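TICKET: design request
STATUS: open
ATTACHED STRUCTURE:
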């Protein structure tokens, strides 16, 4: 890395520290948080609750930069399809921020329900979430 003639290495360091200080959710990889099942069991079910009799559910403690892959895995396992999420609107969240990704899928003979939530491991605030409902067409009938 070469520095501009008027820029010192301490100025560059200070600038990067300032930019990370502006993040609402900075890097917290060095901190330890409870495992995902314990977190789910303690979670207020008004915030998120898996579907009763869910055909498939996921609970993962991951870095924020892994959320698009986790969401895509959920979509593929539940045959929802679609594109990988683009978290570029979440510039206030450091990519290494620890989060809980939880998703649930329920299906009956006529309908399917999908939902997911991303919760910050440190503040326990919901960062992202979504749901999807559609009629189910059974190809075997």
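STATUS: resolved
RESOLUTION: sequence designed for all positions
ATTACHED SEQUENCE:
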């Amino acid at each position: 890395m070469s520095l501009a003639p008027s820029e010192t290495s301490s100025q560059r360091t200070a600038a990067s520290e300032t930019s990370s200080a502006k993040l609402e959710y900075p890097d917290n990889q060095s901190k330890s948080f409870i495992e995902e099942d314990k977190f789910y069991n303690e979670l207020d079910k008004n915030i998120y609750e898996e579907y009763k009799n869910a055909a498939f559910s996921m609970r993962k403690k991951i870095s924020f930069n892994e959320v698009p892959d986790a969401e895509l895995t959920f979509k593929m396992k539940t045959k929802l399809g679609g594109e990988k999420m683009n978290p570029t609107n979440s510039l206030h969240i450091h990519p290494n921020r620890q989060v809980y990704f939880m998703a649930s899928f329920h299906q009956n003979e006529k309908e399917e329900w999908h939902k997911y939530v991303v919760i910050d491991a440190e503040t326990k605030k919901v960062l992202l979430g979504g749901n999807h409902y559609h009629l189910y067409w059974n190809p075997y009938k």
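CLOSING REMARK: Confidence is low (pLDDT under 50) at residues 1-20. The first strand starts at residue 56 and ends at 63.
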